[in-house]
Amino acid sequence: QVQLVESGGGLVQAGGSLRLSCAASARTFRNYVMGWFRQAPGKEREFVAADRWSNGGTYYADSVKGRFTISGDNAKNTVYLQMNSLKPEDTAVYYCAAGDVFTTTPHEYVYWGQGTQVTVSS
To answer: What is the pLDDT of residue 52?
Structure first.
């Protein structure tokens, strides 16, 4: 099975940046769609970004377009989420996920990491 481990979360000031990492099993990016989601307490899990290896396509939620960038390093079996111009409303637990379908729907993803907390202060 695919194992995913997120890291890089923390506390940052509004306007600052963070880079989240998701270490995955070998060859994961050659066989799966990779996605990032986030969930704040009491709220539904929401889509952030996704990457499809087959064509290099990426897709972002409107709320993060122009600020967040998803990328991958196959040599390190790691997917990244570069987050710039962070806002307090970005505060949430961020999860990476892997699945077989390029989609924004959480339940379509099969494998999930444990999550990493991102807190943006004003």
So the answer is: 82
